[in-house]
Design goal:
Helices cover 20% and strands 35% of the residues. It has 115 residues and is of the alpha+beta class. It has 2 domains: 2-35, no CATH class; 45-113, Copper binding periplasmic protein CusF (OB fold (Dihydrolipoamide Acetyltransferase, E2P)). It is globular, with a radius of gyration of 16 Å.
Length: 115
């Protein structure tokens, strides 16, 4: 019962994979060359940087569908989970990124430049 209540509390604040990992406690590190279970579940979308505002930690992306947050293709402003994610970006860059819904905001949690 205690684990069930904790899961309900965590469900609103973090992705399910992270909540499950929290409930299970510490685990051994993945073998070298393998992705961690949370990273393996990262859903990447493709987009193009349309505007950057590093001072406020915001980026405007024209993006395709983002399946994990049920968002169709559009152009919108995202907050960066960590402003350092925006450090190497410039307007016009094509990127792959991961985004999550945090309360009423959409937050970019991972960004990589596309080749």
């Amino acid at each position: 019962m205690r684990r069930f209540c904790l899961l309900i509390l965590l469900a609103g604040t973090m992705p399910v994979a992270m909540a499950q990992a929290t409930l299970q406690g510490p685990t051994s590190a993945p073998a070298e060359g393998t992705a961690s279970p949370v990273l393996a579940e990262r859903v990447l979308a493709e987009g193009e940087v349309r505007r950057l505002d590093p001072a406020s930690g915001r980026v405007t992306l024209r993006h395709g569908e983002i399946r994990n947050i049920d968002m169709p293709a559009m152009t919108m402003v995202f907050r960066a989970a960590d402003p350092a994610l925006l450090a190497n970006l410039k307007v016009g860059d094509r990127v792959r990124f991961s985004a999550e819904r945090v309360g009423a905001n959409f937050v970019v949690t991972y960004v990589e430049l596309r080749n």
